[in-house]
# Entry
Amino acid sequence: MTADPAVALIGLGPRGLTVLERILSRCLVLGPVAGRLRIEVIDPTCTGTGVHDVQLPDYLLLNSSCGEISLFPHHSVAGSAVSCGGPTFYEWARKAGLDEHGRRSAGTGRTVATTDYLPRRVLGAYLRYCLVKLLARTPSYVQVTLHRTHADDVWMEPSGRFTILGRDGLRTTADYLVITTGHTADEPPPAAPGSHRRIGLQPERGPRTQAIGRAQTVAVSGLGLSAYDVVASLTVGRGGHFQRGRDGLRYVPNGQEPTIVMFSRSGIPYRAKPRGRAGSTPDTHRARFLTPAALAGLRQVHGRALDFQQLVLPLLFDEMRLAYGIRASELGGDKPTAAILRSSTDPEALRALLAQVDAAHGGFDARAAFEREPGLGLERIDTYQHWLTNALALDLAEADRGTAASPLKAALQVCDERLPVIRAAIDHGGLTQASLATFFSRTTYQLNRAVVGPQYERQAELLALFAAGVVRTPFGPAPQVSWSDPDQRWVVRSTRLAAPVTGQADWLVDATTPPPSVLRSTSRLLRNLHAHGLIRPFPGLGAIPGVEVDADQHPVDTRGRPVQEIWVFGPLCEGNTYYNHEVPSAGDYSRPHTDADRCVDAILGAAARVSG
# Structure
């Protein structure tokens, strides 16, 4: 260890920026007594934007509302170490004079609101601003060097220091390594028939659909958020637009759109986000069932590794029933019952009272609302498409009412609000191996469909595209897709419709973003870290093959020991931990900020002990 300890920060998207902010804020609070520190930032652009490139088109929207995002942590997260404090995303956008579309207002639109979903490029501009602000506050005893290159190799020297090689010939050293490289791509599968007419997604670039001709048919595999991006690129991205009239929203094509057919494994659409919600509100649900204390109680009885589906999910359903019962009672004029439901802390008394609420206001089946699987209308094409359209329309009506006026949306929102406890149940060996596999193969998709989006407006637009005949869903769930060499087209065959259907498409778009892999990664850095024994894939989850980390986010090496001088954050850890792709958020809890604060506390503490 030299007199000047060094940190290498590899990857400078939002997660990397949170680490940089924490380092600089803590160094400013500690002052020169902390000693000198060298920070080597290695990233291809060093702009801080990550996948939120400022050149992305406006139709690619954020899935978090404007008021939910902040690069700078709340005092409750970081305590007094916020000396590099700055504006939230909303505060910055408002000061910049942006309207609800993320453009500088020319007097025609309204001022941006906390509930607006802005284009991703606008978040990129905010992150660039944050990086400039942070660098301007760098104290004299901290040296920050930006290296605009890829880190391709890292190894640990006998001295314990790391040597880092960059793609352009960079060679530098560091005592501590923080890896926040985000969604690294995997090697494509071996060339297969039809691969020249198959398009995968690249998060940093948006859908690459330019080769698809207007007279062609494209099959979009997926009904989630990435699929909405693909559809937007093929419609609004081609010059079409939506127009609101007396009969509601309608799509006005411009003739450049292909024919779009969509499908997914489950055949179940995502629910729309409720209108009018931005981050925490005064009416945030107060949990009585799925709590940290309840998890601790389960572990006292069943051991550390739980069965999520048998033990944890029922508590989530209880919370959903409670939120539904409170809202249904209030809207039904039964204020005394709502007051008891809000105040009681006795789980069994609450369950008994909720049974009475069910009898008074109609039963609420939390599991059915969560899973949303029965009654898909699988008899024929028209019955499935009718079911899907009707399901979207009914959910859109609930979303329009918002959580304050929709008991259903209030119940579903609990799934989002209890996310920290759900993570605590799952992370770092919290579930049995079988339960963890079921969670990532099934339950996580149900959670995503329940609460992660899309935005209300996007759901309304999809219905308008159905009505215009631009988008269809003719195959039902889990169709079989194969390439026909004679026809030079994709063949799509239904597998669950009682009356089978077969169709063809010129292009196939995989509208999903798989989690990063260690063993199949295109990242030279990940491959070399594994080759040097510094990381290993999380065992036992072939579908989620990310980096294994311990409870402090240190990677576990190939001998099974945590590497105390390395931290890994973000999508690379998916599987060992849950839901790692969120952006830093405003308010009193933000996992990216909390993770970064713990990491930097450990780094500066270790550096001080060695230097002292």
Observations:
- Residues 6-183+581-611 form a domain with the FAD/NAD(P)-binding domain fold (CATH 3.50.50).
- Residues 277-282 have pLDDT under 50 and may be disordered.
- DSSP finds 17 helices and 18 strands in the chain.
